[in-house]
Amino acid sequence: MRTSPETSARLFVGRVAPGTGKAELRRHFKFYGDVADIWLRRGRSFAFVQFMQPAHAARAVADKNHFINGRKVYIGIAQPTKSSGGRLANEMSKYPCQRK
User: Fold this and answer.
1) In angstroms, what is the C-alpha Rg of the chain?
2) CB 60 within 8 A of CB 32
3) Measuring CA to CA, which of 7, 46, 48, 60 is 20 to 30 A from 28?
4) Three-state DSSP class for 38?
5) Which stretches make up the RRM domain (predicted)?
6) Judging by DSSP bridges, how do beta strands 10-14 and 46-51 pair with one another?
7) 63 with 32: CB under 8 angstroms?
8) pLDDT tens profile 9-48
9) Which domains occur in the chain, in start order?
10) Which residue pairs, CB below 8 angstroms and at least 24 apart, start in 53-60?
């Protein structure tokens, strides 16, 4: 069952500054609600933030000005995509951004 964008609790975070860690992301996003998990791959400029409630993710998206470690980041509700031909992929990498 696919989760609709309006009820998703997972955010895509783009333009993450090099050296930004999970602690900085958690500190920034906890203002909007309880953060369940953060996926951040070293050397990549994006992350995923999983909130406990979809309303928390919606609250974060509604705020258009997000600066983390001195860089403006872009956020959007993460969207699941179709599987890539049966290849195993990291679950979080299947969620590109839907910017509002």
Assistant:
1) 13
2) yes
3) 7
4) strand
5) 9-80
6) antiparallel
7) yes
8) 999 999 999 999 999 999 999 999 999 999 998 888 999 9
9) 11-98 (3.30.70.330)
10) 53/9, 54/6, 54/7, 54/8, 54/9, 56/9, 56/32, 57/8, 57/9, 57/10, 57/11, 57/32, 57/33, 58/6, 59/32, 59/33, 60/11, 60/29, 60/32, 60/33
Query: For the chain, what's the residue count?
Result: 100
Within the chain, what is the greatest distance between any pair of CA atoms? 39
Q: Per the structure block, which two tokens stand in for 47?
A: 């992350």
Burial class of 21 by CB neighbour count within 10 A (0 to 12, 13 to 18, 19+): middle
Of 90, 18, 87, 8, give the one whose Cα is nearest residue 52: 8
Mean pLDDT, the chain, integer: 84
Tokens of 94: 């299947």
